[in-house]
Design brief:
The protein has helices at about 25-40, 130-145, 175-180; strands spanning about 45-50, 60-65, 75-90, 95-100, 100-105, 115-120, 125-130, 160. It is an alpha+beta fold. It has one domain (about 10-180): Peptide Deformylase, CATH 3.90.45. The protein has a five-stranded antiparallel sheet. Strand 6 (about 115-120) and strand 7 form a beta hairpin. It is globular. The chain starts with about 25 loop residues before the first helix and ends with a helix. Bound molecules: nickel (II) ion. The site of nickel (II) ion has 6 residues, from helix 2. Nickel (II) ion binds near residues 98, 99, 100, 140 and 144.
Length: about 180
């Protein structure tokens, strides 16, 4: 497994619609494993292939149990060609961040509950029901596949905040908590 470079805002690949994956081969499996390792290393709770410069519809998600909401289940997901097929309700909190827009957070309205249709690494169709924070992360990552960044979805621009890195070079708590 390799830790991949995460590209940042300004790179046109983050603004390009990613291509559907037609079949799972060794290259896709390796990319998924490398993305997972890269996400954990960052550290972040989600990563989309365009963020490592690969224009394919593949995302990884790792949300620990009780992460933002008490009682919320954890999730470790690798999803191919994910799409939102149902979205209901709205949520505003917590603010969102992105590994490709380091140190910035902002308030993004998202659906509270989603149903996601996708394929797993065996290319079998799966449906994921998610709510709350996990639903937020999934919507954020799927946006990346369409060239959309969270800052595009910040309605109240006054909520955009810069969180400077800590003096000791470690990521700030907020960065760790929100990086997608
Ligand atoms: Ni992101």
């Amino acid at each position: 497994m390799a830790i991949l470079d995460i590209i940042t805002e300004g790179d046109p690949r983050l603004r390009t619609k990613a291509n559907k994956i037609r079949r799972v081969d060794e290259g896709i499996r390796r990319l998924a494993a490398d993305m997972y390792a890269t996400m954990l290393d960052a550290p972040g709770v989600g990563l989309a292939a365009p963020q490592v410069g690969v224009l394919l519809r593949l995302i990884t998600v790792e949300v620990p149990e009780d992460y933002v909401e008490e009682g919320a289940p954890g999730a470790s997901l690798t999803l191919i060609n994910p799409e939102v097929v149902k979205a209901t309700g709205t949520q505003l909190e917590p603010p969102e961040g992105c590994l490709s827009i380091p140190h910035w957070i902002g308030t993004v309205p998202r659906a509270q509950r989603v149903v996601i249709k996708a394929r797993d690494l065996d290319f079998k169709e799966v449906r994921i029901r998610a709510e709350g924070y996990l639903a937020r992360v999934l919507q954020h990552e799927i946006d990346h596949l369409d060239g959309i960044l969270f800052t595009d979805r910040v309605v109240d621009k006054s909520t955009l905040r810069y969180l400077p890195p800590r003096d000791d070079g470690e990521p700030s708590d907020a960065e760790v908590a929100l990086a997608e």
